[in-house]
Amino acid sequence: MVGSVNPKVEIYERMIASLREENSDYCGESMNYCKRPETRHIQCGEVLKRDKTYLSSIIGDNRIPLIRNPFLNMSCPEISKRIRPKYNMSSLKLGGVAFARNVFTDYELIEKQVQMTWHPDNRYCFVVDKNAKDDFKRRIEQLVGCFEDQMVMPVTLFMDSAGHNQNLAHTKCMKALLQYPNWGYAMLLQNHDFITKTVYELDRIFDLMGGVIDVKTGGVIWERDMKHLKWDPKSLKLFRNESAVPEDVLKTSLTFACGSVQASLSRGTVRWLIETADLTRFIDQQNQIVFGGDEQMISTFQINCQLGIPGHFTKDCLEQGVSVEQVTRLVHWSSTGHANCVTKISRHGVCLFGIEDLIPMAELPHLSFNKVYPKFDWSIIDCAAELVFNRTFLGQENQHFDEDYYSNLVSVQYHKNHKKPGYKLNCTSNRKPRRYEDYIGS
């Protein structure tokens, strides 16, 4: 009903009218970031200024979710128009980033993430869950087909939220991405991981990491302890060429760590995982774990330095009972229920991020945030995307970008110094950790 006094109804009316115009171009020729119709009224700058009165007017009952566009034009020219920037882009020092993402829903979020991370040198791989809706599969296939020189979809697999086949999917992507030359680092991601750094910031961060594997490393959860299976490289047939590996390494059982499926890996690490190692049996055994087996693979290979994986860490911190955090992903657990979340809502034990989280997204060093749900809050997606756009193309400075923070990560310091005589690892960084919890209630 046109002219409603309910602001949210008016927003939806405008949005639906725009979506009904199948070929409408509501962005026009503007060189600025273009929000969707339903979020065009959102003043992201007021949120960044910590205007609590304004923030309270766009959350709760006034929160703006995404309503899927059934008329989304999926022709290659239109997809390209939505993704490719109108600005020229500078070259990347490391030759680009490869993104390996397991997906099953929310196509418009996936496309938005491609737009936010777009660079001619970047590469993208998607593995789609076989249980995904047919329309979603078709859209991903169309997206990939429009960028065959930059994107690949090697296989569809049955995947679930318990972690089964997540590692296998990433392995398929890593193998497919190696066909593309030049990229220097790969990010292993899942559907609702939301990258908040510019392509140039990612390039600089990975350069500072210097080849190290970035993944969370912590103790194994007892439910995931599969000691009845054999975990030595010999039994796992882990090495394609066992003659090049010392016998004691082949016969020594792996020390397990639990972390996350999300990780950042150098090209050398990816090549080792695909060409030096054969992960088939390891992944098969991990898939026998009822829940969360996917969170152990990269962390485990990272700490078993005897394997020789490029960018490795060590088990020393684990043995001291110290967990080593990552910067690839930030997650906030709803350990005490919804009340523990700023947005007061969670899924699978993880808080959903909303527009309330724009400031930590803008300031914290983490590369991605999990979970961001478009059906819950599209405002945070559009505001973060606008921020990334302004920093990438309009010269807006990220005053919180701290190169020393990345250089002083525990894993980076170990990687730089572990071969030096007398080096002693300090499992806690000399820098004060920058934590999401510091923003709660601020």
From TrEMBL:
GO terms for cellular component: membrane. Keywords: Glycoprotein, Glycosyltransferase, Membrane, Transferase. InterPro entries: Glyco_trans_14. It holds the Pfam family Branch. It comes from the Eukaryota. One of its GO terms (molecular function) is glycosyltransferase activity. It is a single-pass type II membrane protein. It is found in: Membrane. This is Uncharacterized protein. It comes from Caenorhabditis remanei (Caenorhabditis vulgaris).
